[in-house]
Fold:
Amino acid sequence: MSSPDAPQDTGPHRLWSVDEHLADVLAAVRPLEPIELQLLDAQGCVLVEDVTVPVALPPFDNSSMDGYAVRVADVQGASEEFPAVLTVIGDVAAGSGELPTVGPGQAARIMTGAPLPPGAEAVVPVEWTDGGTGGGAASGMTPASAAPEGAGGEVRVHRAAEARQHVRSRGSDVQAGDLALAAGTVLGPPQIALLAAIGRGSVRVRPRPRVVVLSTGSELVQPGEALGAGSIYDSNSFALAAAARDAGAIAYRVGAVADDADTLRATIEDQLVRADLLVTTGGVSVGAYDVVKEALTAVATGSDEVDGAGIDFRKLAMQPGKPQGFGTVGPDHTPLLALPGNPVSSYVSFELFVRPAIRALMGLPDVSRPAVRAVLKADRAIGSPAGRRQFLRGAYDAHSGTVSPVGGSGSHLIAALAHADSLMVVPEDVTTVEPGAELEVVLLG
Structure:
């Protein structure tokens, strides 16, 4: 599974760089095939084609207020003391088809979103009138159920109006033929609203990747259950499933699998039917009960050799997250990333390798988190092992351009991770970062 320009030394003692491993992952991941989806089903998906506007939006001149459609000349000079008195000829509601024509000395009650009737040049809000009651300034309209009284008679207008005032012009949002959304757009609620507004009931998109997350370890207990001796709660599968959703995927969390190669193998084979990407956590080191290597080696090829399928287990020049596994499994060569089991190691590994894979499956050009340069704000220098790229939890202050360490460097410190919003990156050739020095910061928010 190595990239073409990767070094040929793939022995067990070789340390792979973070960049080499990520390049291998991305080289094996292809965007999912596009499909046509209904609008709500397409939320979170990526458009694969430009969408143009078939009709102007709004498709007709309409009122932006509840009030009266009038001619400008008829309300010129109107005031509280000398109101313009107009004859009300009827109602114009949103969705009205046949419209009354407003002539000299006339007005039509009009509702927000209703078409501007012929002859009318502006809309005066109902608060500028007496609402047809013959009294002072109105605060609202007489309900339509009170017609014909509310839709006839006279209305006193207390303020003048300019031409097109409170009128939303046809095509003022978008014109027919305009580009509504470009290919590559991720469809969120505003984009779904625009597609619906221009009459699109479905769109062609790349579907959200289906990501199956499995945590391994006989010591793992599900939250809500009682802890036995030597047991801990399974946090990794929850963290990584949530992270997969955050990246744009549909995540399926599988409960913790015991340290048994046959059980893990069967579980992975069962999950292949609903997976575009598989993620395991735990069991990739060198311990006697790290059974993931054994199980994945078998499931990668099955009973018959599958051309190109297989899992590489590597040691990366990074901290945390040194042991990693990657390859493809099953008849469809489904990508699988095997992450270490320590909570911080697994989460950092997800951000560096799994999130980019998910974004690549979606067909997005920018697959990694944004990174900035920031000044270290700390009481003491930060140490880092030589030859390793270290990722430390940090709190980034965009206003001051500084970043502060959160917690220690231990790969089990979940509480520190929960309070961090960034990862501070210490390069392989740096062993000490002094306060005030500048370093790369990966933003997690």
User: Anything to note?
Assistant: Confidence is low (pLDDT under 50) at residues 1-8, 301-308. Helices lie at 18-27, 72-75, 189-197, 236-247, 261-271, 292-301, 343-361, 414-418.
